[in-house]
Amino acid sequence: MNPPVHPSLGLRANAAQFTLLVAVNALVGGMLGQERTVVPLLATQEFGLDSYSAALTFILAFGLAKAATNYLAGTWSERYGRKPVLVAGWLIAAPVPLLLIWAPWWWVVIAANVLLGISQGLTWSTTVIMKIDLVGPHRRGMAMGLNESAGYIAVAFTALLTGWIAAEAGLRPEPFLLGIAYAALGLGLSVLVVRETLGHAAGEAASSREPGDRSDRDVFLHTSVREPALSSASQAGLVNNLNDGLAWGLFPVLFVGAGLSVAEVGWLVALYPAVWGLGQLVTGALSDRWGRKRLITAGMLTQAAALAITAEAATFAAWAGSAVLLGAGTAMVYPTLLAAIGDVAHPAWRARAIGTYRLWRDSGFAVGAVLAGVLADAFGIREAIWAIAGLTAVSGLVVALRMYETLPPTIQRDA
């Protein structure tokens, strides 16, 4: 009997599918970007929420839904295949912009964000897993840099565009018409053109000498607590997205309270993910050469410094500078953490490890919404930002002290 023939691994061998998945993930990012400028302002200006904690409930709902779905996406993609999970995510995303346009009560916005979180967990997780399947071990950092760059450049572009539309036409419905177009295009591409990549992971697993059988419980505990690199990455990912939840929910309110216009707020809200997105084109590939640990540690400390500057600033120019710094720090961390998970996890349980990591990472949205809201209500927005800057610095030190370098020396030499 002839041995099974597995698909070829590598970026060049799978260039067409990889490029398509980059485009699909840009549309996934656009679905998130439609909310970044407009929804925090809807909370205060249309729904009259005067408590920071209440206004951040939409991020709490999004974060909890996305975190839980990330874990399920990893398990389901190993059980049923990657493509069905991706398509299911787009079907769930379709009603979100319609609900945001129609919502007569704040709880409808929260419900829309539950759906958005579920859809993001399914679609974004699956595009990550599929790209890691395609490229194999030698270009994981570059692959994750391209994936996350596409997503967050789309977040930035859409945040900027919806801010401009809102300044010209109002907060609803026009800004959310973009989301309708993104959902239709993403669903069409995923159904008609995207191909299954589970066979690529099976081929890589077949060539591995390490045992690949682990229970779901063992993978969860291994990624969350036991394995030093995986658990260090999980806590850093949580704090990173805690920062993003803070920026998403409170930065627009801080900027408007300081007298900036909606258009200026749109520029600031877009600048941070734009630098984040573009920076990952460089940092992902650099992590294939320099290793993962140094970039993650430096990125967390850079984010802490950026948040401290944001807490003290009072002008558009100063906030623009801190947004650039925050984006740069996040770019160092974001693709590198995913690449580190891919380095350590066996191909047979890698999707579940990624799902577990993304569960912890995106729990940061929920933790950030609660922590930032409570601190801002009790002490003020600037004091809340200072506290989270300190927490971010501690997270970077945990990586420095506990994580080992995950990039194999042979790959580092060949990169």
Quick rundown:
With 415 residues, the chain is mainly α.
Give me the Rg, rounded: 20 Å
Q: Globular, elongated, flat, extended or rod-shaped: what is the shape?
A: globular
Low-confidence stretches: none
Number of domains: 1
* Number of discrete helical segments: 18
CATH class (first level) name: Mainly Alpha
Mean pLDDT: 87
| CATH homologous group name | MFS general substrate transporter like domains
Write the H/E string, N to C: HHHHHHHHHHHHHHHHHH
For the biggest sheet, the summary is: none
CATH fold type:
Growth Hormone, Chain: A
Number of strands: 0
Q: What CATH architecture do you see?
A: Up-down Bundle
Percent of residues in helices comes to over 70%
Strand content: under 5%
Pfam family, one: MFS_1
Domain Major facilitator superfamily (MFS) profile: 1-198, 229-415
Keywords: Cell membrane, Membrane, Transmembrane, Transmembrane helix, Transport
Subcellular location: Cell membrane
Walk me through this protein's architecture:
It is a single chain. The chain has 18 helices and no strands. 58% of the residues are buried. Helix 1 runs antiparallel to helix 7. The mean pLDDT is 87. It has one domain (15-414): MFS general substrate transporter like domains (Growth Hormone, Chain: A, Up-down Bundle). With 415 residues, it is mostly helical. It is globular, with a radius of gyration of 20 Å.
